[in-house]
Design goal:
2,3-Dihydroxybiphenyl 1,2-Dioxygenase, domain 1, 2 helices, 8 strands, disordered C terminus
Length: 163
């Protein structure tokens, strides 16, 4: 009787559409859109937070608004009637949280102070999160619908100068 062979793990390889055609490369995230329960209340919240983070209101409609920092557009839009039937819950399918990458630890502290001053719902104040990597520093907070947001700093590895 032939001996059974153990199954070899398969490594997924990218499928080439055509060997001479280069695949597209994502160069960034252009925009993000969140649906909100109370547009006016959320617009006031995001106008404050995003304004503090250097975003400016770029687009404004009756039921949607978009802020830009010159690289990314952050949009909110009024949820429809069906979407408003139940409140947002982090464990549901879909959005978990959005993290704003900040340039310095001090920026995380400044955001935390701004959030406290504006009485935003802070889930976790600015702190080190070593489980996420050495130097990871963040503040976690909620928008008016309870969607989780984060301001974080994660230092890049510094290259040693060669002699």
């Amino acid at each position: 009787m032939p001996r059974a062979r153990a199954a070899q793990p398969r490594v997924a390889r990218p499928r080439l559409v055509h060997p001479r055609i280069a695949r597209p490369r994502v160069i960034g995230i252009d925009h993000l859109v969140l649906r909100v329960g109370n547009f006016a209340k959320s617009k006031r919240f995001y106008d404050g937070v995003l304004g503090f983070l250097g975003f400016a209101l770029k687009y404004e409609f009756a039921d949607a608004a978009g802020w830009s920092n010159g690289k990314t557009l952050f949009w909110i839009g009024e949820a429809d009637a069906r979407g408003k039937r139940r409140p947002y819950r982090i464990g549901d399918i879909g959005f978990h949280h959005y993290a704003f990458e900040l340039a310095r630890r001090q920026d995380v502290d400044a955001l935390g102070a701004f959030l406290a001053k504006t009485k935003a719902r802070i889930v976790d104040p600015p702190a080190d999160y070593p489980d996420y990597g050495a130097g990871y520093y963040a503040v976690f907070f909620l928008d008016p619908d309870g969607m989780k947001l984060e301001g974080m700093f994660f230092p890049k590895e510094r290259k040693k100068k060669s002699a």
